Amino acid sequence: MSMTARPALRKRKTIDPCPTCFLHRQRCICDSIPKHDLKTRIILIIHAKELKRTTNTGRLALHALVNSAMYVRGQSTERLDLSSLLVPEYESYVLFPSDDAVNLEDIKPQKPIQLIVTDGNWRQASKLNTRHPELSHLPRVKIGAANTARYHLRKEHFSEGLSTLEAIALALRIVEGEDVGDSMLDLYRKKLAATLQGRGQNVSF
């Protein structure tokens, strides 16, 4: 058997994708987007470069979550101030697997949770502290289990690596229950299957 490495398949850009699920319109999954009005508030901090990527899943998650909001950073040289997120109605946490992060299952909140999720590549997400010192005091939480999935929307460089929608789904499974989390995971799997189909891979979950 030849050990010569095959060249990586070039990923073609989706032409005229659906503006909601970012899939080719023939594979649109918008009819499958659930609607959840939860006590938990999801805040998505997304890098401007992610807005152009059809593999982005963070915005898809927000379409399913009524009590959610998105803030875009990196659109200009002016720093985005997120101080307004720190409201007394919520206990705020940053979902990111830093060295000092604790497992989400282990926290004991006294109020509804506001979960701040950074959406971008690993390097962009890891700069939240330096880019937003107003959030640097917030505790970091993580999903305890490693990502052992066979298929991914993008190449994961770390065992903790998850797509944004996956991470949100697993987090909500912990804080809001299995039904909510599983419905969000189902949405992610439909996005993944349709994306892989567009790359010539037919998979089922």
Q: What is the general shape?
A: globular
Biggest beta-sheet profile: 6 strands, parallel
Instruction: Note the run of SSEs as H and E.
Output: EHEEEEHHEHH
- In the sheet with the most strands, the strands line up as 2-1-5-3-6-4
Total helical segments = 5
Helical fraction: 10-25%
From the N-terminal CA to the C-terminal CA, the straight-line distance is 31 Å
Task: Write down the oligomeric state.
Answer: single chain
Structural class: alpha/beta
The stretches of 5 or more residues where confidence is low (pLDDT under 50) are 1-10
The whole-angstrom Rg is: 17 Å
Number of strands: 6
Q: How confident overall, as mean pLDDT?
A: 84
Strand content: 5-15%
Could you explain how this protein is built, in words?
This protein has 205 residues and is α/β, with parallel strands linked by helices. Helices cover 24% and strands 15% of the residues. The chain contains five helices and six strands, in the order βαββββααβαα. It has helices at 58-64, 122-126, 128-131, 164-175, 178-198; strands at residues 41-47, 68-73, 91-95, 102-103, 113-119, 140-142. The chain has a six-stranded parallel beta sheet with strand order 2-1-5-3-6-4. Strand 1, helix 1 (58-64) and strand 2 form a beta-alpha-beta unit.
